[in-house]
Amino acid sequence: MGKRVALVLAGCGVFDGSEIHEASAALVHLSRGGAEVKIFAPNIEQRDVINHLKGSPAEEKRNVLVESARLARGNIQDLAELKASEFDAVIFPGGFGVAKNLCSWAVDGKNCTVNEHVNSTLQAFHSAKKPIGLCCISPVLAAKVFPGCEVTVGQDKNVDGRFPDAETASAIAELGCKHICKNVNESHVDKANKIVTTCAFMCKAPLHEIFDGIGTMVQEVLKLA
User: Fold this and answer.
1) In 3-state terms, what secondary structure has residue 62?
2) Cβ atoms of residues 43 and 79 within 8 Å
3) Which domain range does residue 21 map to?
4) Which residues form the signal peptide (predicted)?
């Protein structure tokens, strides 16, 4: 029987929700790995709505669960209903929605707060010694919730202009966590905490390299599950 994996979304669209290519890549690799996947998102209002054509805020309100349902093809549940006992692992794709809706990193950085259901989900999987997969900006969730853990968001310097958000690594270190430098097609496994991370779009890289990196993360999560 395939591993049972919960996928947690943060909306739909890179600038105010989940990064669509990352969510899709995770789902493709999970499917290839024979996993049984259920998708969740918090039933909350988005911090903001961004016009993705213009890159500017839009004067409207949207719900994270409703928007995430676009990516889930309607087959989605409220994150409040997720029970860690029913799954072998949990995965969080990235996107600004993670830093805006799942926590307040986009505004508060390392002083952010984490959504109560996101926090309780992470704590439940961690306490049950079940693996947690995170990509792009979502490793900051682990850094905030599990001081001392090891994660990667790519590089800690803007190598060749490919890592414009390299300062995130410093903020992770300030939280008492260890940042591990990795290339976009790699992932890092914190064996002690069963946390697997990869940088995805934190690196300016061709889409297939990001896809492959997420694949390594999914593979490692399934191995640990």
Assistant:
1) coil
2) yes
3) 4-224
4) none
> CB within 8 A of 50, min separation 6: which ones?
13, 15, 16, 56, 57, 58, 96
Nearest 5°: the CA angle 57, 61, 66 is 120
**Residue entry with tokens 């903020």:** 171
| Model pLDDT for residues 100-148, shown as the tens digit of each residue | 999 999 999 999 999 999 999 999 999 999 999 999 999 999 999 999 9
Sole residue written with tokens 């704590």: 123
Residues annotated as catalytic are: 136
- The enclosing domain of 65 has a CATH number of 3.40.50.880
Question: What's the number of domains the chain is made of?
Answer: 1
Q: How many CA atoms lie within 13 Å of 208's alpha carbon, on the beta-carbon side?
A: 0
Instruction: Answer left, alpha or beta for residue 198, where phi above 0 means left and psi between -120 and 50 means alpha.
Output: beta
pLDDT digits (tens, 9 = 90+) for 74-88: 999 999 999 999 999
Does residue 78 sit in helix, strand or coil? strand
Instruction: Give the residue from 6, 75, 74, 17 showing the smallest Cα distance to 44.
Output: 17
Pairing, β 188-190 against β 195-198: antiparallel
